Amino acid sequence: MRASLIQIVVDEDETVNSRRARVSSLVREVAGRERPDLVVLPELWTTGAFAYESFASEAEPLKGLTYEAMAKAASDTGVWLHAGSVPEQAPDGALYNTSLVFSPEGELAASYRKIHRFGFDKGEAVLMSAGSQLVTVRTPTATLGLATCYDLRFPELFRGLVDAGAEMFVVPAGWPERRREHWLVLARARAIEDQAYVLACGTGGTHGGVPQAGHSVVVDPWGEVLAQAGDGEEVLTVDLDPAKVAATREQFPALKDRLLGLDEPRR
Predict the structure, then answer these.
(1) Of 23, 54, 84, 253, which is least packed with CB atoms within 10 Å of its CB?
(2) CN hydrolase domain: from which residue to which, for each copy (predicted)?
(3) Which of 58, 88, 114, 167 is flagged as catalytic?
């Protein structure tokens, strides 16, 4: 299985419509040149993950302009496309940070509303609603588990995805540069503890006044970094062996030693 992660630079001087068209072209270019089975885009690349003032004005229905552009890019190129995430406006008016995954036929294979919203008492945490469902996507070669950015700090979400059959975690992000080392350590930790691939795709540039970490990374089930980007616009293409997940779990069967339902701590 070959995967291409497209690390986008989000430039605040570029309009959302222009970036949408540019990224659509990038998907086609990368698919033609690299011949991947799976293409991955970052979190909130239309607006920027920290451009809070744009969330409401640029929010789309699930099947909005970005959906249409990405569905066509997937069907035109015949790839599985994780189109990153968009600010989704639900029919009831609520906003969600929603990831879209398309099949090679351009059909929506899955959508995932980000569960853990960043910002504590401001930003995304107060502007967007939380998702409530774990989501996996079964492809012909591997089962993908979906997570987004800040979700990476919550290992219980990833264990839930493992229990649902995930073999590869796809994590689009808009991670800040000042916590870049956390990004890299957490991506490796999720791979090691869950014995799964991690495909973590970030953004470059600066949006909402926050410089971005870039450094998209692909990690194998043993925690080995297979590829890592810099901080600019870049494409990572990596050949993955889905059978390595089962082999790793068999060779080092740590997941079998999980103990659940423990007694409450004594006080």
Answers:
(1) 253
(2) 1-242
(3) 114
